[in-house]
Amino acid sequence: MTNFFSNRQRVKGAAAQNLLKDIWRNRWLYIFVIPGVFYFLIFKYIPMGGVVIAFKDYTPFLGIVESQWVGWKHFERLFQNNDFVMLFRNTILISLYKLLFYFPVPIILALMLNEVRLKVFKRFVQTVIYIPHFFSWVVVAGITYVLLTTEGGIVNEFIMWAGGEKINFLGQNAWIRTLLTSQTIWREAGWGTILYLAAMSAVDPQLYEAAKIDGAGRFRQMWNVTLPCIRSTIVILLILQIGNFMDLGFEQIYNMINAGNKDYGNVFDTYVYTIGIKEGQFSYSTAIGLFKSVIGLILVLGSNYLARRSGEEGIF
Known about the structure:
Blueprint: H1 2-25, H2 27-45, E1 56-57, H3 63-66, E2 68-69, H4 73-80, H5 84-102, H6 104-114, H7 119-130, H8 137-148, H9 154-161, H10 173-201, H11 205-213, H12 218-229, H13 231-243, H14 250-254, H15 262-265, H16 268-278, H17 282-309
Antiparallel strand pairs: 1-2
């Protein structure tokens, strides 16, 4: 028994020494990681402690510790709220629109760019489609207003010139989801091609040569070689997209909703801003945020489980 424990301690000592040697050998990599670790600790993990106010009647004068515990009161209020169904429906539908119509666009663009052989033209196109990503949502909303307003907007002027009647794109419920999805595609699709193009650059050229010998044309090579080789990248990005299913972002929607389209455009993010910041109901708005986070976590775990069951690596 004594030999067993001594051998066990010897193994642990050797493992610790190997770990220290590995850290010293890769010390510069660990140094590069330190700022990122501190960023996540300070701005992501430590603020998580604040979610406790979702179970309290928080008041700034008493602080988090002294505020009274109220259990599930704020969650019950959320589920009994008359606006809950509307907010949940709008959030789900807008997220679904973006998943169905936005997610495939960067893949298609990357496949098309990968087939361009003239490097100068390829870089020009890449630059043009990357630029919108650097515009803020405020600028994107401003461009949308200039194009679609009924008071001299380019699109409505063209419709009038063609003999039609003006369409109130910006003030009708019927158009808000289409506008939000279109804005996301225009701003983010080009930037989203970066990861797919990087994955395509790692495809073994011999696979294309073998496909050519078998008589495959460009489209067949794309379908049978390129897409299967980047399948794991597509699955990982799809899981990450599903993880943000309930998180539509506040800035884009807040700049687009108005009295005419809020019934179809108001989502949890804008509701949290109204309730939490404007009305000072911190506990209730935190409960809504926690509800969103739990749904997002379930979606990530579920999609990752399905991906692993289907033979993919998943994200963990």
